[in-house]
Each structure stands twice: as structure tokens, then as C-alpha cells.
């Protein structure tokens, strides 16, 4: 309260600290913008590719690289589990085709036993972070050397995978499952020798987390080391009238556009 005051100056100093929630919101919004931009560029690329194929009548052979990568990961995952468990999936058969109705039905008790087995190996390891490297064809069966050398696929990574004679795979354990994995490797028992974990158990993995991981949801990954450039060979398909590569520049708004 003032009396007979003509002018008044007030200085206010505010100190702000970023909250973790604000950071997470910014990360989510930034990821959404990047994803939207990527999908737009991908749609543009696929449209140009389809137009070129229509004009030239040339069809690009082979499957999409993402489908090939999924197939390669599944095959490596299958064999990793075979090595860990010393089995080849011969006993997995929870369908009874000789039921009373003549129609195939689920063998409930068999499905329950197999489900606990499947769930352990699907959840105990972070298969989405599996890394691998192939070794040349001559480490495989000598009788198939000629056949492996003859493989030719438009996808260079898939072609390398088909030709490989051996493969080194690294699969990380899911945090929290280290003890359960060690127990299995030592005693051959799943889930630390007990039943499936309840919803309140330490080893319980919500299905929402599994879905998010398959959708490549960003978590708390920390980059290790400095990034480096990698050159990947392409097929002989050309999307430009000349052999020039695209060049990108930043506009006044900070967006990357093709020069």
C-alpha cells in the first residue's frame, strides 16, 4: 500500500528448473515430429520408386529390407534358443487334431507347460537389442560352397546373411532377469525353479512394455563412443536421371531440405 506515490518500479527475478516431466514431454514431441517427417520422406521415396518402375517396366526384385531383417533376426533367435536349451522344438505341439469333434483343439495342459517355457525365453532376453555379425561361407559345409557363392539378392545385408558359413550373436539379458537366467544355466529350471511370476512379482513383464519395445519406444539408452560413417552398397536401381547424389541444406527455419 502506498500514499502519494506517482511512480513505482518493481524488479522480479524468477529462477526456473527443468522438471523430468517437461523433459519427457519434449522428448516425446520431438520424436513424434521426427517420425512424421521420416514417414513423409519415405512415402515420397516410395512414390518416386513406383513411378520409375512404371515408366521403365523394371521391377525391383527381392523382399523389402525390413522384412529380410525380421526374418534374419527370427532365424538367429531360433537357433540361439536351441543352443541355450539343447532342443530343436520337436516337443512343441499343443494342438490335438484327434479331438472328439474331429477338429483341432488346444491341449490345455500342454499349452500351459509350453507357455511358461516360451514366455521365459521371450522375456528373459532383450531380443530387440540382439546384435550379430556373419563370417564367410567357407566356415560352413564344404558341399554347399558353390551354392552359397551363387546367392544373389538385391538386399546386400540379406545376401551376406545367406552366404554366411558361421555367425556370432550377442543377446543382452533383460535387467532383473540375470539371476533367473543364471539359475536356468546352472540347474535347468525356469523362473528360478518356481511358477510363473504373479503380477506383483519382480520378474513380471507387462504386455504393454513388450508392445512398446517392439515399436522401438525410446528408453534410457545411452550412446557409447563416437558415431562413425558407414557406406552401404546399393542395387543397380537408379532413381535420378544422372548419377548425382542428393544434397541437403538447412533453411532459415532449421529444416533440412534438398538443395
Describe the protein's architecture and organization:
There is one protein chain. The chain has helices at residues 20-56, 65-85, 108-123, 145-149, 156-163, 178-187, 207-214, and strands spanning 95-96, 105-106, 131-135, 166-170, 248-250, 256-258. The longest helix is centred in the N-terminal third of the chain and has 37 residues, at 20-56. Strand 5 and strand 6 (256-258) form a beta hairpin. It is built from seven helices and six strands. The chain has a domain at 18-55. The protein has 259 residues and is mainly α.
Outline of the structure:
Helices cover 41% and strands 8% of the residues.
Number of helices: 7
**Which runs of at least 5 residues are low in confidence (pLDDT < 50)?**
none
Measured as a percent range, the helix fraction is: 40-55%
Assembly of the depicted chains: single chain
Strand content: 5-15%
Query: What best-fitting shape do the alpha-carbon axes yield?
Result: extended
Give Rg in angstroms. Answer: 28 Å
Strands, total number: 6
- Helices and strands, in order, run as HHEEHEHHEHHEE
Structural class: mainly alpha
Largest sheet: 2 strands, antiparallel
Overall mean pLDDT stands at 87
Secondary-structure blueprint of this entry?
Elements: H1 20-56, H2 65-85, E1 95-96, E2 105-106, H3 108-123, E3 131-135, H4 145-149, H5 156-163, E4 166-170, H6 178-187, H7 207-214, E5 248-250, E6 256-258
Overview features:
259 residues; two-stranded antiparallel sheet; 41% helix
Amino acid at each position: 500500500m502506498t500514499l502519494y506515490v506517482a511512480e513505482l518500479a518493481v524488479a522480479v527475478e524468477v529462477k526456473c528448473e527443468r522438471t523430468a516431466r517437461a523433459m519427457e514431454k519434449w522428448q516425446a514431441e520431438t520424436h513424434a515430429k521426427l517420425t512424421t517427417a521420416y514417414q513423409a520422406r519415405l512415402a515420397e521415396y516410395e512414390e518416386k520408386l513406383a513411378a520409375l518402375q512404371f515408366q521403365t517396366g523394371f521391377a525391383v526384385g527381392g523382399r523389402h529390407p525390413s522384412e529380410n531383417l525380421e526374418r534374419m533376426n527370427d532365424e538367429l533367435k531360433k537357433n540361439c534358443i536351441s543352443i541355450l536349451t539343447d532342443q530343436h522344438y520337436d516337443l512343441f505341439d499343443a494342438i490335438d487334431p484327434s479331438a472328439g469333434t474331429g477338429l483341432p483343439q488346444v491341449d490345455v495342459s500342454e499349452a500351459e507347460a509350453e507357455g511358461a517355457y516360451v514366455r521365459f525365453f521371450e522375456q528373459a532376453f532383450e531380443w530387440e537389442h540382439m546384435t550379430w555379425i556373419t563370417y564367410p561361407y567357407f566356415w560352413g559345409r564344404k558341399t554347399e560352397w558353390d551354392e552359397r557363392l551363387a546367392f544373389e539378392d538385391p538386399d546386400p545385408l540379406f545376401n551376406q546373411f545367406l552366404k554366411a558359413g558361421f555367425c556370432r550373436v550377442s543377446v543382452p539379458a533383460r535387467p532383473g532377469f540375470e539371476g533367473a537366467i543364471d539359475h536356468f544355466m546352472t540347474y535347468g529350471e525356469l523362473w528360478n525353479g518356481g511358477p510363473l511370476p504373479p503380477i506383483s512379482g519382480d520378474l513380471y513383464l507387462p504386455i504393454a512394455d513388450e508392445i512398446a519395445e517392439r515399436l522401438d519406444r525410446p528408453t534410457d539408452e545411452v550412446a557409447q563412443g563416437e558415431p562413425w560413417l558407414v557406406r552401404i552398397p546399393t542395387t543397380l536401381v537408379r532413381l535420378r536421371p544422372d548419377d548425382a547424389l542428393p544434397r541437403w541444406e538447412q533453411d532459415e527455419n532449421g529444416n533440412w531440405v534438398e538443395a
